[in-house]
């Protein structure tokens, strides 16, 4: 199966968000707004380099953007890629809704036949 561009982007976003540290970084940015890499790193029991690597994964997925002010690297949350996850889950919900409706129809038909 050949993945479309949106499918590849969705996969990249899901992979990036699969790590608990990266999800925590996203949560911090959502709660507190943009922040310096050094300030974000203080929330974790790992080296600045390790946190920076997590941020680079989030950048590749488009979940965060980086800007430089003097010597500081400011990281900002980008919510746009998360819409892809919302759309995918909406698609899954609609598929399950159709399946449940079909199951309900079968159940109602069986119940009606039992009453006859």
Report on the architecture of this protein.
The protein is α+β, with helices and mostly antiparallel strands. 67% of the residues lie in helices and 12% in strands. It is built from five helices and three strands, in the order ααβααββα. Strands 1-3-2 form a three-stranded antiparallel beta sheet. Strand 2 (64-69) and strand 3 form a beta hairpin. The protein is elongated. The mean pLDDT is 86.
Give a brief rundown of this model.
With 116 residues, the protein is α+β, with helices and mostly antiparallel strands. It contains five helices and three strands. Helix content is 67%, strand content 12%.
List the helices and strands and how they pair.
Elements: H1 5-17, H2 20-32, E1 35-36, H3 37-41, H4 48-60, E2 64-69, E3 72-77, H5 82-115
Antiparallel strand pairs: 1-3, 2-3
Helix pairs in contact: 1-4, 1-5
């Amino acid at each position: 199966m050949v993945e479309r561009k949106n499918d590849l982007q969705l996969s990249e976003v899901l992979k990036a968000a699969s790590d608990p540290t990266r999800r925590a970084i996203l949560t911090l940015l959502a709660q507190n707004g943009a922040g310096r890499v050094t300030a974000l790193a203080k929330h974790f029991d790992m080296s600045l380099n390790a946190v920076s690597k997590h941020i680079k994964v989030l950048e590749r997925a488009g979940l965060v953007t980086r800007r430089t002010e003097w010597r500081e690297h400011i990281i900002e949350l980008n919510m746009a890629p998360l819409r892809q996850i919302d759309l995918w889950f909406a698609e899954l919900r609609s598929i399950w809704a159709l399946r449940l409706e079909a199951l309900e129809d079968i159940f109602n038909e069986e119940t009606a036949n039992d009453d006859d």
